[in-house]
Write a structure and sequence with these properties.
7-stranded antiparallel β-sheet; elongated; two-stranded parallel sheet; alpha+beta; 6 helices
Length: about 240
């Protein structure tokens, strides 16, 4: 191999590194056109959920969470090795960008299925709970409302990008939640059946009381992916400005 080839090959790979870009929406929208933004953003949900290796973003479906800890209202619950499915089917109900307030508002919904190992002790509303084993939690029509402040900053090439700063959210499980835990009360079937019946009949109260710590890490991962993606895209490439 000639000396010239030793020079050309590294240059070639450097060029490839810089021309690789993350996928972009299929259409550009004015930032004041919420209907257009919604239509352009919806196909990107599955793209972001699959992870973007060029940007180093995590796979969001199936999402893996090492540990979730709930210590609330008399319940001590440790969830580990959780796999969460369903986020790639998230539906965007509303999305708008307020350039004056520098804020993105979104309403989304999805079905979420969590499978994990658990250890629980304490009280679940009015009933005692004790057990260690496997758990499945299914949330049907989980609605998330998010307000996401941002700033416009410059990237390395001096182009404007959206830099998400934080988020606030509210949630509501609209349709149903279903809980199943193995080895409750050391395998006592009568006590286990009683608790399962109570949990699945009172799913609304349980999700209102205990869902926040369960949702925290998944939402953090979603926010991180959105932040990384938008910082990688010059605003002029993804929107009419």
């Amino acid at each position: 191999m000639s000396v010239n080839m030793f020079v050309i090959i590294p240059i070639f790979f450097v060029h490839i590194t810089f021309v690789i870009t993350a996928p972009q929406p299929s259409q550009k929208c004015s930032l004041s056109d919420s209907a257009c933004i919604k239509a352009a953003a919806q196909p990107m949900v599955s793209v972001l959920a699959a992870g973007i290796p060029e940007l180093g973003t995590e796979v969001l479906d199936v999402m893996h969470v090492d540990r979730i800890k709930v210590d609330l209202a008399g319940l001590k619950l440790n969830i580990r090795d959780a796999d969460i499915k369903g986020l790639k089917h998230t539906v965007i109900d509303e999305i708008s960008v307020d350039m004056a307030k520098k804020q993105i508002h979104m309403i989304i919904h999805a079905n979420m299925n969590l499978k994990a190992k658990y250890k629980a002790a304490g009280r679940l509303l009015i009933l005692p709970i004790s057990g260690e084993g496997d758990t499945t939690i299914k949330l049907k029509n989980l609605e998330i409302r998010m307000n996401v402040p941002f700033e416009l900053t410059k990237n390395a090439n001096g182009k404007d990008v959206i830099d998400l700063k934080s988020y606030k959210y509210t949630y509501d499980v609209k349709d149903n939640a279903h809980f199943h835990l193995t080895n409750l009360f050391n395998g006592n079937k009568e006590l286990s059946d009683t608790l399962h019946t109570f949990m699945n009949e009172n799913w609304k109260a349980l999700t209102q009381e205990f869902a926040v710590p369960v949702l925290e890490q998944p939402l953090n991962k979603i926010f991180s992916t959105m932040k990384t993606y938008l910082k990688s895209q010059p605003l002029e490439d993804i929107a009419v400005v």
